[in-house]
Protein backbone atom coordinates (compact mmCIF):
# COMPACT_ATOMS: atom_id res chain seq x y z
CA UNK A 1 0.00 0.00 0.00
CA UNK A 2 2.80 2.38 0.97
CA UNK A 3 4.70 1.48 -2.18
CA UNK A 4 1.60 2.19 -4.26
CA UNK A 5 1.20 5.57 -2.58
CA UNK A 6 4.87 6.38 -3.20
CA UNK A 7 4.48 5.36 -6.84
CA UNK A 8 1.41 7.61 -7.23
CA UNK A 9 3.27 10.47 -5.54
CA UNK A 10 6.16 10.01 -7.95
CA UNK A 11 3.81 10.02 -10.90
CA UNK A 12 2.08 13.18 -9.72
CA UNK A 13 5.39 14.99 -9.20
CA UNK A 14 6.57 14.43 -12.77
CA UNK A 15 4.28 16.63 -14.81
CA UNK A 16 3.85 15.89 -18.48
CA UNK A 17 4.59 18.78 -20.79
CA UNK A 18 1.94 20.75 -22.61
CA UNK A 19 2.30 21.56 -26.30
CA UNK A 20 1.30 24.99 -27.60
CA UNK A 21 0.98 25.42 -31.35
CA UNK A 22 0.86 29.04 -32.41
CA UNK A 23 0.81 31.41 -35.35
CA UNK A 24 1.68 35.12 -35.68
CA UNK A 25 -0.31 37.29 -38.08
CA UNK A 26 -0.47 41.01 -38.83
CA UNK A 27 -2.61 43.58 -40.62
CA UNK A 28 -1.62 45.99 -43.39
CA UNK A 29 0.40 48.11 -40.95
CA UNK A 30 1.97 45.23 -39.02
CA UNK A 31 3.63 43.58 -41.97
CA UNK A 32 7.18 43.24 -40.68
CA UNK A 33 8.76 40.11 -42.06
CA UNK A 34 10.04 38.95 -38.66
CA UNK A 35 8.45 39.07 -35.25
CA UNK A 36 9.68 38.17 -31.80
CA UNK A 37 7.62 35.96 -29.51
CA UNK A 38 8.31 36.12 -25.76
CA UNK A 39 7.03 33.33 -23.53
CA UNK A 40 7.34 34.04 -19.82
CA UNK A 41 6.15 33.08 -16.35
CA UNK A 42 5.99 35.76 -13.66
CA UNK A 43 8.29 38.01 -15.73
CA UNK A 44 10.91 35.27 -16.10
CA UNK A 45 11.59 34.83 -19.78
CA UNK A 46 11.51 31.15 -20.66
CA UNK A 47 11.65 31.30 -24.44
CA UNK A 48 12.39 33.97 -27.04
CA UNK A 49 11.43 32.99 -30.57
CA UNK A 50 11.93 34.65 -33.95
CA UNK A 51 8.88 33.86 -36.06
CA UNK A 52 8.19 35.19 -39.55
CA UNK A 53 4.80 36.76 -40.17
CA UNK A 54 2.17 34.04 -40.75
CA UNK A 55 4.69 31.49 -39.49
CA UNK A 56 3.98 28.74 -36.98
CA UNK A 57 5.74 27.77 -33.76
CA UNK A 58 5.60 24.96 -31.22
CA UNK A 59 6.28 25.47 -27.51
CA UNK A 60 6.60 22.71 -24.91
CA UNK A 61 6.03 23.82 -21.36
CA UNK A 62 4.88 22.65 -17.95
CA UNK A 63 1.25 23.17 -16.94
CA UNK A 64 0.55 26.57 -15.39
CA UNK A 65 -0.12 30.21 -16.21
CA UNK A 66 2.08 32.00 -18.71
CA UNK A 67 2.26 35.22 -20.68
CA UNK A 68 2.95 35.23 -24.39
CA UNK A 69 3.84 38.42 -26.27
CA UNK A 70 4.53 38.95 -29.95
CA UNK A 71 5.99 42.21 -31.23
CA UNK A 72 7.71 43.62 -34.27
CA UNK A 73 10.16 46.32 -35.27
CA UNK A 74 7.37 48.74 -36.23
CA UNK A 75 6.05 48.66 -32.68
CA UNK A 76 3.16 46.27 -33.25
CA UNK A 77 2.38 44.16 -30.22
CA UNK A 78 -0.06 41.60 -28.84
CA UNK A 79 -0.06 39.96 -25.41
CA UNK A 80 -2.09 36.99 -24.27
CA UNK A 81 -2.33 35.01 -21.06
CA UNK A 82 -2.16 31.25 -21.36
CA UNK A 83 -3.37 28.75 -18.82
CA UNK A 84 -1.81 25.44 -19.81
CA UNK A 85 -3.55 22.30 -18.60
CA UNK A 86 -1.75 18.97 -18.45
CA UNK A 87 -2.60 16.60 -21.26
CA UNK A 88 -4.21 19.26 -23.44
CA UNK A 89 -2.64 20.55 -26.64
CA UNK A 90 -3.34 24.24 -26.96
CA UNK A 91 -3.41 26.55 -29.96
CA UNK A 92 -2.81 30.28 -29.85
CA UNK A 93 -3.19 32.87 -32.58
CA UNK A 94 -1.22 36.08 -32.11
CA UNK A 95 -2.63 38.86 -34.31
CA UNK A 96 -0.31 41.86 -34.05
CA UNK A 97 -1.94 45.22 -33.35
CA UNK A 98 -0.50 48.52 -34.49
CA UNK A 99 0.68 50.93 -31.81
CA UNK A 100 -1.89 53.47 -30.70
CA UNK A 101 -0.45 56.67 -32.10
CA UNK A 102 -3.54 58.86 -31.84
CA UNK A 103 -3.87 61.03 -28.75
CA UNK A 104 -7.21 61.03 -27.04
CA UNK A 105 -9.24 64.25 -27.28
CA UNK A 106 -8.57 64.87 -23.59
CA UNK A 107 -4.82 64.80 -24.08
CA UNK A 108 -4.69 66.81 -27.27
CA UNK A 109 -3.04 70.16 -26.75
CA UNK A 110 -4.44 73.08 -28.64
CA UNK A 111 -2.28 75.10 -30.98
CA UNK A 112 -0.43 77.89 -29.29
CA UNK B 1 15.36 70.18 -25.48
CA UNK B 2 16.82 66.97 -26.87
CA UNK B 3 20.26 67.95 -25.60
CA UNK B 4 18.82 68.55 -22.15
CA UNK B 5 17.16 65.14 -22.22
CA UNK B 6 20.42 63.44 -23.22
CA UNK B 7 22.27 65.29 -20.45
CA UNK B 8 19.59 64.28 -17.94
CA UNK B 9 19.78 60.61 -18.95
CA UNK B 10 23.58 60.54 -18.92
CA UNK B 11 23.63 61.85 -15.35
CA UNK B 12 20.77 59.77 -13.98
CA UNK B 13 21.52 56.34 -15.51
CA UNK B 14 24.49 55.46 -13.25
CA UNK B 15 22.45 56.49 -10.23
CA UNK B 16 19.60 54.27 -11.30
CA UNK B 17 22.05 51.38 -11.65
CA UNK B 18 23.70 51.82 -8.28
CA UNK B 19 20.40 52.18 -6.47
CA UNK B 20 19.17 48.74 -7.50
CA UNK B 21 18.18 46.19 -4.91
CA UNK B 22 18.70 42.48 -5.34
CA UNK B 23 15.67 40.43 -4.43
CA UNK B 24 17.64 37.21 -4.18
CA UNK B 25 20.51 36.98 -1.70
CA UNK B 26 22.38 34.56 -3.95
CA UNK B 27 22.30 36.86 -6.95
CA UNK B 28 25.58 38.29 -8.12
CA UNK B 29 24.60 41.93 -8.03
CA UNK B 30 26.04 43.80 -5.07
CA UNK B 31 23.40 44.80 -2.56
CA UNK B 32 25.04 48.04 -1.54
CA UNK B 33 27.34 48.67 -4.46
CA UNK B 34 30.37 47.64 -2.39
CA UNK B 35 31.22 44.49 -4.31
CA UNK B 36 29.95 41.26 -5.74
CA UNK B 37 28.24 38.54 -3.74
CA UNK B 38 30.17 35.35 -2.91
CA UNK B 39 30.50 33.13 -5.90
CA UNK B 40 30.02 35.99 -8.32
CA UNK B 41 32.50 37.66 -10.61
CA UNK B 42 35.20 39.34 -8.57
CA UNK B 43 36.52 42.02 -10.86
CA UNK B 44 33.55 44.27 -11.22
CA UNK B 45 32.15 47.16 -9.33
CA UNK B 46 29.04 47.32 -11.52
CA UNK B 47 26.06 45.03 -11.14
CA UNK B 48 26.26 42.35 -13.79
CA UNK B 49 23.21 40.79 -15.32
CA UNK B 50 20.95 39.94 -12.44
CA UNK B 51 18.03 37.67 -13.23
CA UNK B 52 16.37 38.50 -9.93
CA UNK B 53 16.68 42.25 -10.09
CA UNK B 54 13.84 44.29 -11.48
CA UNK B 55 13.70 44.90 -15.23
CA UNK B 56 14.70 48.51 -14.68
CA UNK B 57 18.13 47.24 -13.63
CA UNK B 58 18.83 46.58 -17.24
CA UNK B 59 18.88 50.30 -17.96
CA UNK B 60 22.44 50.18 -16.70
CA UNK B 61 23.30 47.57 -19.28
CA UNK B 62 21.47 48.87 -22.31
CA UNK B 63 22.94 49.22 -24.79
CA UNK B 64 26.61 49.57 -23.92
CA UNK B 65 27.22 47.27 -20.99
CA UNK B 66 26.94 43.77 -22.47
CA UNK B 67 30.23 41.90 -22.20
CA UNK B 68 30.65 41.43 -25.94
CA UNK B 69 29.53 44.86 -27.05
CA UNK B 70 32.82 45.78 -28.74
CA UNK B 71 32.27 42.88 -31.09
CA UNK B 72 28.68 43.79 -31.78
CA UNK B 73 28.13 45.98 -34.81
CA UNK B 74 24.64 47.18 -33.98
CA UNK B 75 21.81 46.64 -31.53
CA UNK B 76 18.92 44.46 -32.67
CA UNK B 77 15.57 46.21 -32.20
CA UNK B 78 14.30 43.48 -29.88
CA UNK B 79 17.14 43.95 -27.38
CA UNK B 80 15.57 47.12 -25.97
CA UNK B 81 12.16 45.56 -25.45
CA UNK B 82 13.65 42.39 -23.98
CA UNK B 83 16.07 44.10 -21.63
CA UNK B 84 13.37 46.39 -20.24
CA UNK B 85 10.74 43.68 -19.89
CA UNK B 86 12.51 40.62 -18.55
CA UNK B 87 15.12 40.58 -15.74
CA UNK B 88 16.77 37.47 -17.21
CA UNK B 89 16.89 38.79 -20.77
CA UNK B 90 20.69 38.52 -20.90
CA UNK B 91 20.53 34.80 -20.13
CA UNK B 92 19.66 31.94 -22.46
CA UNK B 93 16.58 31.10 -20.40
CA UNK B 94 15.37 30.93 -16.80
CA UNK B 95 18.69 31.00 -14.96
CA UNK B 96 19.63 29.68 -11.55
CA UNK B 97 22.38 31.88 -10.16
CA UNK B 98 23.02 29.37 -7.38
CA UNK B 99 24.34 26.83 -9.81
CA UNK B 100 25.41 28.84 -12.85
CA UNK B 101 23.01 27.07 -15.16
CA UNK B 102 19.49 26.87 -16.55
CA UNK B 103 16.75 26.56 -13.95
CA UNK B 104 15.62 23.13 -15.11
CA UNK B 105 12.55 23.07 -12.87
CA UNK B 106 10.82 25.60 -15.11
CA UNK B 107 11.01 23.43 -18.22
CA UNK B 108 9.72 19.99 -19.26
CA UNK B 109 11.84 17.19 -17.85
CA UNK B 110 14.46 15.47 -19.96
CA UNK B 111 18.05 15.80 -18.76
CA UNK B 112 20.81 18.14 -17.77
CA UNK B 113 21.73 19.71 -21.12
CA UNK B 114 19.70 22.40 -22.88
CA UNK B 115 20.50 22.64 -26.57
CA UNK B 116 19.42 26.20 -27.16
CA UNK B 117 18.50 27.38 -30.61
CA UNK B 118 19.96 24.86 -32.95
CA UNK B 119 19.49 26.86 -36.15
CA UNK B 120 19.42 24.58 -39.16
CA UNK B 121 20.23 26.33 -42.45
CA UNK B 122 19.49 24.43 -45.65
CA UNK B 123 20.94 25.56 -48.95
CA UNK B 124 19.90 24.46 -52.41
CA UNK B 125 20.73 26.11 -55.72
CA UNK B 126 17.29 25.36 -57.13
CA UNK B 127 13.77 24.97 -55.69
CA UNK B 128 13.76 21.63 -53.87
CA UNK B 129 10.84 20.13 -51.99
CA UNK B 130 12.05 18.56 -48.79
CA UNK B 131 10.78 16.83 -45.68
CA UNK B 132 13.14 16.94 -42.74
CA UNK B 133 12.49 15.27 -39.44
CA UNK B 134 14.54 15.27 -36.25
CA UNK B 135 14.64 11.96 -34.40
CA UNK B 136 15.62 12.41 -30.77
CA UNK B 137 16.34 9.82 -28.08
CA UNK B 138 13.47 8.86 -25.76
CA UNK B 139 15.24 10.40 -22.79
CA UNK B 140 15.42 13.83 -24.46
CA UNK B 141 12.57 16.36 -24.64
CA UNK B 142 11.39 18.85 -27.19
CA UNK B 143 11.22 22.44 -25.96
CA UNK B 144 10.60 24.52 -29.09
CA UNK B 145 10.29 24.28 -32.85
CA UNK B 146 9.85 26.90 -35.59
CA UNK B 147 8.00 26.13 -37.78
CA UNK B 148 6.06 23.59 -35.74
CA UNK B 149 7.57 20.12 -36.07
CA UNK B 150 5.19 17.88 -34.08
CA UNK B 151 5.36 14.21 -35.07
CA UNK B 152 5.42 14.75 -38.83
CA UNK B 153 8.54 16.91 -39.11
CA UNK B 154 9.12 19.95 -41.34
CA UNK B 155 7.86 20.11 -44.92
CA UNK B 156 9.09 22.99 -47.10
CA UNK B 157 10.60 24.08 -50.38
CA UNK B 158 14.26 25.01 -50.13
CA UNK B 159 14.69 28.10 -52.29
CA UNK B 160 17.97 29.42 -53.65
CA UNK B 161 19.98 31.57 -51.24
CA UNK B 162 18.78 29.72 -48.17
CA UNK B 163 15.09 30.64 -47.93
CA UNK B 164 12.77 27.86 -46.74
CA UNK B 165 9.16 28.25 -47.88
CA UNK B 166 6.27 26.44 -46.24
CA UNK B 167 2.63 26.90 -47.21
CA UNK B 168 2.27 29.60 -44.51
CA UNK B 169 5.51 31.58 -44.48
CA UNK B 170 9.13 31.86 -45.53
CA UNK B 171 11.82 31.07 -42.98
CA UNK B 172 15.55 31.79 -42.95
CA UNK B 173 16.26 28.60 -41.00
CA UNK B 174 14.61 25.76 -39.10
CA UNK B 175 14.82 26.21 -35.36
CA UNK B 176 14.37 24.00 -32.33
CA UNK B 177 15.29 23.69 -28.66
CA UNK B 178 15.91 20.39 -26.93
CA UNK B 179 16.69 19.07 -23.48
CA UNK B 180 19.00 16.05 -23.46
CA UNK B 181 21.13 13.97 -21.13
CA UNK B 182 24.74 14.83 -20.28
CA UNK B 183 25.74 11.35 -21.48
CA UNK B 184 24.64 12.32 -25.01
CA UNK B 185 27.58 14.71 -25.36
CA UNK B 186 31.37 14.37 -25.43
CA UNK B 187 33.22 15.88 -22.47
CA UNK B 188 36.90 15.45 -23.35
CA UNK B 189 37.76 17.82 -26.19
CA UNK B 190 37.33 21.53 -25.81
CA UNK B 191 38.85 24.82 -24.81
CA UNK B 192 38.50 27.42 -22.06
CA UNK B 193 38.34 31.13 -22.81
CA UNK B 194 37.71 34.46 -21.13
CA UNK B 195 34.53 36.51 -21.54
CA UNK B 196 36.04 38.72 -24.22
CA UNK B 197 37.34 35.76 -26.19
CA UNK B 198 34.19 33.63 -26.17
CA UNK B 199 32.07 34.98 -29.04
CA UNK B 200 35.04 35.74 -31.36
CA UNK B 201 36.40 32.22 -30.75
CA UNK B 202 33.04 30.56 -31.50
CA UNK B 203 32.62 32.72 -34.59
CA UNK B 204 36.08 31.67 -35.73
CA UNK B 205 35.08 28.00 -35.37
CA UNK B 206 31.90 28.64 -37.40
CA UNK B 207 34.00 30.32 -40.09
CA UNK B 208 36.40 27.37 -40.14
CA UNK B 209 33.47 25.00 -40.53
CA UNK B 210 32.21 26.88 -43.58
CA UNK B 211 29.10 28.55 -42.15
CA UNK B 212 27.70 31.30 -44.40
CA UNK B 213 27.99 34.95 -43.42
CA UNK B 214 24.26 35.43 -42.70
CA UNK B 215 24.12 32.42 -40.38
CA UNK B 216 27.14 33.72 -38.45
CA UNK B 217 25.48 37.13 -38.15
CA UNK B 218 22.42 35.42 -36.67
CA UNK B 219 24.73 33.70 -34.20
CA UNK B 220 26.42 36.94 -33.14
CA UNK B 221 23.11 38.84 -32.91
CA UNK B 222 21.64 36.31 -30.55
CA UNK B 223 24.51 35.07 -28.42
CA UNK B 224 26.05 38.49 -27.85
CA UNK B 225 23.00 39.15 -25.72
CA UNK B 226 21.97 35.74 -24.47
CA UNK B 227 25.16 34.17 -23.09
CA UNK B 228 25.15 34.20 -19.31
CA UNK B 229 27.77 36.53 -17.82
CA UNK B 230 30.85 34.80 -16.44
CA UNK B 231 34.55 35.50 -16.01
CA UNK B 232 35.49 32.43 -17.96
CA UNK B 233 33.91 29.62 -19.92
CA UNK B 234 34.87 26.09 -20.93
CA UNK B 235 33.46 25.02 -24.28
CA UNK B 236 32.95 21.42 -25.41
CA UNK B 237 32.17 21.51 -29.15
CA UNK B 238 29.93 18.72 -30.46
CA UNK B 239 30.25 17.77 -34.12
CA UNK B 240 28.41 15.49 -36.57
CA UNK B 241 29.89 12.37 -35.04
CA UNK B 242 28.89 13.40 -31.50
CA UNK B 243 25.39 14.61 -32.36
CA UNK B 244 23.98 12.69 -35.28
CA UNK B 245 23.95 9.21 -33.74
CA UNK B 246 21.37 10.40 -31.20
CA UNK B 247 19.84 13.50 -32.76
CA UNK B 248 19.42 12.30 -36.30
CA UNK B 249 18.20 14.57 -39.08
CA UNK B 250 16.22 12.49 -41.56
CA UNK B 251 15.59 14.02 -44.95
CA UNK B 252 13.37 12.92 -47.83
CA UNK B 253 16.25 13.72 -50.23
CA UNK B 254 19.94 13.14 -49.78
CA UNK B 255 21.73 16.03 -48.14
CA UNK B 256 25.12 16.24 -49.84
CA UNK B 257 26.93 17.92 -46.99
CA UNK B 258 25.91 18.25 -43.35
CA UNK B 259 27.87 20.34 -40.87
CA UNK B 260 26.55 20.33 -37.31
CA UNK B 261 28.42 22.27 -34.63
CA UNK B 262 26.95 22.62 -31.17
CA UNK B 263 28.95 24.43 -28.50
CA UNK B 264 28.31 23.17 -24.98
CA UNK B 265 29.27 26.22 -22.92
CA UNK B 266 30.00 25.80 -19.20
CA UNK B 267 30.38 29.08 -17.25
CA UNK B 268 33.05 29.12 -14.55
CA UNK B 269 30.34 29.61 -11.89
CA UNK B 270 28.90 26.20 -12.73
CA UNK B 271 32.22 24.46 -12.21
CA UNK B 272 32.71 26.27 -8.89
CA UNK B 273 29.63 24.71 -7.34
CA UNK B 274 29.27 21.35 -9.04
CA UNK B 275 30.71 18.15 -7.62
CA UNK B 276 29.04 15.71 -9.93
CA UNK B 277 28.39 15.38 -13.57
CA UNK B 278 30.33 14.88 -16.76
CA UNK B 279 31.17 18.56 -17.18
CA UNK B 280 32.55 19.45 -13.75
CA UNK B 281 36.12 19.59 -15.05
CA UNK B 282 37.98 21.37 -17.79
CA UNK B 283 38.48 19.68 -21.19
CA UNK B 284 41.25 17.08 -21.10
CA UNK B 285 42.27 17.53 -24.74
CA UNK B 286 42.55 20.63 -26.92
CA UNK B 287 39.79 20.61 -29.51
CA UNK B 288 40.83 20.59 -33.14
CA UNK B 289 38.01 21.26 -35.55
CA UNK B 290 37.40 18.30 -37.86
CA UNK B 291 35.91 20.76 -40.34
CA UNK B 292 39.09 22.86 -40.59
CA UNK B 293 40.81 21.00 -43.41
CA UNK B 294 37.80 19.12 -44.74
CA UNK B 295 37.77 18.91 -48.51
CA UNK B 296 34.66 20.35 -50.05
CA UNK B 297 33.46 19.92 -53.59
CA UNK B 298 31.85 22.91 -55.24
CA UNK B 299 28.11 22.46 -54.83
CA UNK B 300 26.27 21.54 -58.01
CA UNK B 301 22.71 22.57 -58.84
CA UNK B 302 21.35 19.35 -57.35
CA UNK B 303 23.33 19.44 -54.14
CA UNK B 304 21.67 20.21 -50.83
CA UNK B 305 23.76 21.46 -47.93
CA UNK B 306 22.79 21.66 -44.26
CA UNK B 307 24.60 23.74 -41.65
CA UNK B 308 23.48 23.76 -38.05
CA UNK B 309 24.84 25.67 -35.05
CA UNK B 310 23.71 25.63 -31.43
CA UNK B 311 24.86 26.77 -28.01
CA UNK B 312 24.10 24.33 -25.17
CA UNK B 313 23.99 25.04 -21.45
CA UNK B 314 23.78 22.79 -18.42
CA UNK B 315 20.96 22.72 -15.91
CA UNK B 316 21.97 24.24 -12.58
CA UNK B 317 22.99 22.02 -9.72
CA UNK B 318 20.55 21.33 -6.92
CA UNK B 319 20.57 23.86 -4.05
CA UNK B 320 21.63 21.12 -1.60
CA UNK B 321 24.91 20.81 -3.46
CA UNK B 322 25.47 24.53 -3.20
CA UNK B 323 24.88 24.54 0.55
CA UNK B 324 27.35 21.69 1.00
CA UNK B 325 30.13 23.82 -0.46
Tell me what you see in this structure.
The complex is a heterodimer of chains A (112) and B (325). In chain A, a hairpin with a 2-residue loop joins β2 (34-41) and β3. Chain A has one helix spanning 2-13; strands at residues 18-25, 34-41, 44-52, 56-61, 64-72, 77-84, 90-95. Chain A is 11% helix and 48% strand. With 112 residues, chain A is mainly beta. Chain A is built from one helix and seven strands. By secondary structure, chain B is of the alpha+beta class. Chain B has two domains: 2-90, no CATH class; 105-324, no CATH class. Chain B has seven helices and 15 strands. In chain B, the strands form three sheets. An eight-stranded mixed beta sheet of chain B has the order 5-9-3-15-13-11-10-14. In chain B, strands 8-7-6-4-12 form a five-stranded antiparallel beta sheet, with no helix packed on it. In chain B, α3 packs antiparallel against α4. The longest helix of chain B has 17 residues, at 2-18. The radius of gyration of chain B is 21 Å and the shape is globular. Chain B starts with a helix and ends with a helix. The relative contact order of chain B is 0.17. Chain A binds chain B through residues 14-15, 17, 19, 21, 23, 36, 38, 40-41, 43-62, 69, 71, 73, and chain B through 51, 55, 77-78, 81-82, 85-89, 93-94, 106-109, 141-150, 166, 168-172, 175, 177, 226. β4 of chain A pairs antiparallel with β5 of chain B.
Annotation, overall tally of beta strands of chain B: 15
| Helical content class of chain A | 10-25%
State the helix count of chain B. Answer: 7
Shape of chain B: globular
Give average pLDDT of chain B, whole number.
80
Biggest interface, which chains?
Answer: A-B, 33 and 36 residues
Look at the structure and give the CATH class of chain A. Mainly Beta
Supply the number of structural domains of chain B. Answer: 2
Percentage of residues assigned to helices of chain B = 10-25%
- Can you give the mean pLDDT of chain A? 85
Major β-sheet of chain A, in short?
A: 4 strands, antiparallel
Widest β-sheet, arrangement of strands of chain B? 5-9-3-15-13-11-10-14
Q: Poorly predicted ranges of chain B (pLDDT <50, ≥5 residues)?
A: 10-49, 52-72, 319-325
Identify the CATH homologous superfamily of chain A: Carboxypeptidase-like, regulatory domain
Number of β-strand runs of chain A: 7
User: Quick one: overall form of chain A?
Assistant: elongated
